[in-house]
Amino acid sequence: MVTMPAPSPRARRSVVAELEGGLLRGADTFPYFMLVAFEASGLPRFAALLALWPLLRLLELAGRGGLALRAAALVATAGVPRAEVEAVSRAVLPKFMADDVDPRAWAAFGACEGRRVVVATRLPRVMVERFAREHLGAHEVVGCELEYSRLRRCTGLLKGGGEGEAVADRVRALFAGGDRPDLGIGRSEMVRSFSPFCKEQLEPPFTAGAATTSAAAPPFRPVIFHDGRLVCRPTAFMSLVILLWLPLGALVAFVRIAVGLMVPIWTIPHIAPIFGGVVITHGRAPPAVHAAAEEDGGGGSPSGVLFVCTHRTLMDPVVLATVLGRRVAAVTYSISRLSEVLSPIPTVRLTRDREVDAARMRAELARGDVAVCPEGTTCREPFLLRFSALFAELSDRIVPVAMNYRVGLFHPTTARGWKAMDPIFFFMNPRPVYEVTFLNQLPAEATCAAGRSPVDVANYVQRILAATLGFECTSLTRKDKYRVLAGNDGIVNAAKPAAPGKAAWQSRVKEVLGFLLH
Predict the structure, then answer these.
(1) CATH number of 14-202
(2) Is 131 in contact with 19 (CB distance < 8 Å)?
(3) Which Pfam families match (predicted)?
(4) Using one digit for the tens of pLDDT, what is the confidence trace for 373-383?
């Protein structure tokens, strides 16, 4: 096939593109099967698939890529509930695929204003369909299918789409009206079976001519919400690193947590480098404010400082308290019992009842400083979710704090997994880094005391925090996140409760299995 310069974007009305090695820079699909194995099943299956990697590589070198695909799918998915595979495909895989999109391929693909078809040649359709439709704007996705048993579990077998001619027939069937695709993008042998059906063809490496369509292509839709514990793409090498680090990482996490619970809180930023952690502080922390209300006979305003933080991990209020070196109460909508036990600072559960929550926060402010994260949930990407305006009604002594973190191996947040493991995964990273930036206290004219509405105050705080971090403000909420990642509204215990004895037994089993398998 000859690489051809891209025609004018107006001339293109339809496109058929290969995903692996076409729209995505890399053609290696092994990391995606590793992600499914780890996130949908656990560590044993993850290790088993890694052990199979040499055989898979030999099959590919021998020209038996189809057999390698079937073997990887069998080990990664056999016996896994269908809902788990679909959840991982929805919440985990899109982030890794988005990071690997070829900008020039997207420029050519996105510039087509008509029908867009994505062909998955090395992955089951269920693993790519969410990403292709939601982020690439595909109208149709062609690929092989996973088979399921009557119990809605994967058999590990694939059907359809495995041969070049079969894929070509399915592509031609989509254009049965006689209107051939204007452009075909891809490079594999399977793509060559249907590329002659397209009026023009492009294959990597794309020429400079393909980049000329970037002005006509719509902006690539970023992945704002994603789940899963692994930070790095689990190539064979990185997967081996993760497996070797896990036992040592668990020990390191235990030592870090034990030391953090035993030493005075103000010493933690100073001793963190000894244990591989880093806490970076910018700006000037406000001094403690004593109880003015008591001095005025109980009629004064709340005495504490209200720290309004960006919400990156469960550790945000804890790190803030260690930097301040004093008691700071953390208010949160949901926190696991284990996290409450491990927390070195007081935690206050909110109920989502506005009056009740306001009363609880006022009571804590009367005792001292309070840390609140108005986003209501964490976001891993450089975006800030919509701020709840409740905090603006409670105090005029508001100090915005920009929190951010960096980790190398494991994400310390989850929407689908066991939240009790969040602090443990954070401390399992070889070198966790936290960055705390104190902004100036809001002037009186920027608070509700000057007649501004709580919503205006919340939006103003969101904007200055986003500008400090270089993030983008959004109007997305906690509900949006959990609908994308978990298929619910993110309300704990929203489902019908089980019997008391059964619920307790299930909770214990989940915690034990979560620690062993993840």
Answers:
(1) 3.40.50.1000
(2) no
(3) HAD_RAM2_N
(4) 999 899 999 99
